[in-house]
Amino acid sequence: MGAEAEPTQIRLVCVGDDDVATGSHVRKWMETKPLEDLEIDVQFGVELNSALEILENGETDLLAISASSWYVCKGAPNTMVAATLPRRDENHILVAKDRLDYLDYKSIILVENRLQRRQLRRYRPDFRILDPMAFADMIGREIPAKSGLGLLAWMEDLHATKMITGYVSEMHLFNSAKIDSRRHKLMTDSKENSARFLPSPLNGLTLLISRKGFPASLAEKIGDAESMTAWDCERTILDRIEPDIHDKIGMIVRHRQIPSLLNQAEKEKDLLRSTSLLDSEGDIIGDVSLVEILIEIIGRTGERTMLVEKLVEKEMAPTHARLVMSEWQDMLNLVTKEHEEDIRLGPARPPFLDL
Description:
alpha/beta, D-Maltodextrin-Binding Protein, domain 2, 3 domains, 13 strands, 22% strand, globular
């Protein structure tokens, strides 16, 4: 596709089956009609290698793929991330009869991802938070799939027969399976309390991949600026974190309006934040919108958390993402370091954070 003129029709190939959210995100994006005079022809359910071949041969203009899949495959030659779709459903959901606060003591909750298991142990230490594979071994029942719709159906059967209290899944799987059960989102910002469930890195992000030379003006029109900021920053951060702890990291990068930040600071009684955003006359300092970077890692039992939080200007967000990782690594080394016996500091002690 030439860069001289913007096309009126775009051919799009969507990578992945119903187990991934890409197809759902693309359909919702098309419903919003990104450009009235742009016709989008979509082919769903294409395998990654085939999609890359189609893109390379010029048989399609864009390839839609989840950010986590593109990050794992490390991209492809002669391609670029042209745009990103609006971030959707980055938070996991709890399928249960009631919200977390009101579930029974020692409820059994099945959770596939390590991050959400630790977050739930932090929130309710009395819960029995189990990996589905471990629970299958306990009850002597074979599990049909390690993830996706097959696992969801298996857990829903256990939930319907009251063998478990609930389970954690993703919104697109829940919607695809058309399950008639109550679900509750594990929110990044809860209106009821200060507890946070940061999503897994890159979760909810869908990328539009093109060959080099895709019109930048068109990419800007169809893409989402906040999601592109999130992709640039979260990818940069992940590159600087050891791969063996990626599944223990909660992270989100997002645009925040200062009035919203002030409301949050008031709710949490965060005087430092509220004063940092206002001048001596009580007026807002600087831009109305900033980029918030949140990264956390939780200990094995959920009792201890290390959280790094930054508010930065939009234009400097990728640079600050690199800088914040220097602070992160220094802090992580300190909290995971064993303390040897010392005459002044006392007897030997285990690390503050057990990963």
